[in-house]
């Protein structure tokens, strides 16, 4: 099933090129929202975490509502971020073997992004007025947690996966302090674009063999496959849940291949497609109109110059 939010937080099921409003099927049901407290309550269609926490109940209801409902063209609605305010957004760092050398990967690691960074399909990533060396958009597949867990073993990890979604991880490089800058680099407003919908895991036969492609203004810039993950999904869930309890609706972004990363600039149109997850589009706005040489990291490495990217060419903060 493909789940999306649209038009003032209506919940829909996407079938082909149409979306079927299933909000009323949620509003009609009472569930025990707080497991440690007596009583039941209605949940709102926009409470995605509660919805998937009770998926055994709501899944069949939404399937039936989608079968019996009438669809509207996707082109006639405004899609919103399909996961709106998760408790946690965990992002795996350096989780792809990028050069085919067989060199052992870096130790597994992750960082947090704030939920306030989330934006949805067709929205704009705004580059802030800070002296960053470069702004980048990282193509990623992310999983959505469906079941609460702490210290989940890898053997049980897939029981905690609800589904998958496209995610664009915005980054601003070059801000200090050195080795302690993930907060400044990753948690800017609009720096976590997700969508266009969440695809339940039963629709994805093999999440470890999916093509990931990102285009900038129609030019293919990132092109890799999830089979190249250094740490598989099960290990990622195990690691993240060893640090904190994972909650229904949480996002775990599974990393990127850095070789195709390149500078973002004002007016860019970014498109991301993980096979089976639809196409996510966003725009880029920079009021300062800063520019860089449009090279990927892989192209820059061939020049022999130090660092991952060339210097800023024009605009505020240019050398």
Q: How would you concisely characterize the structure shown here?
A:
The protein has 319 residues and is an alpha+beta fold. Helix content is 14%, strand content 33%. Belongs to the FAH family.
Percent helix, as a range, is 10-25%
Q: Number of helical runs?
A: 6
Number of strands: 21
- Tell me the Rg in angstroms: 20 Å
Q: Roughly what fraction of the amino acids lie in strands?
A: 25-35%
Task: Please provide the ordered H/E string of secondary-structure elements.
Answer: EEEHEEHHEEEEEEEEHEEEHEEEEHE
Structural class: alpha+beta
Low-confidence stretches: none
Structure report:
- Residues 295-319 are annotated as: Disordered.
- GO terms for molecular function: hydrolase activity; metal ion binding.
- The chain has 319 residues and is α+β, with helices and mostly antiparallel strands.
- Helices cover 14% and strands 33% of the residues.
- It has helices spanning 23-27, 48-53, 55-68, 182-186, 233-243, 297-301, and strands at residues 2-6, 10-15, 18-21, 30-31, 41-42, 71-73, 79-80, 89-93, 109-112, 118-119, 124-126, 134-145, 161-173, 192-200, 211-216, 219-225, 251-253, 269-274, 279-285, 291-292, 312-314.
- Strands 1, 2, 3, 6, 7, 8, 9, 10, 12, 13, 14 and 17 form a twelve-stranded mixed beta sheet that branches.
- A hairpin with a 4-residue loop joins strand 18 and strand 19.
- The protein starts with a strand and ends in a 5-residue tail after the last strand.
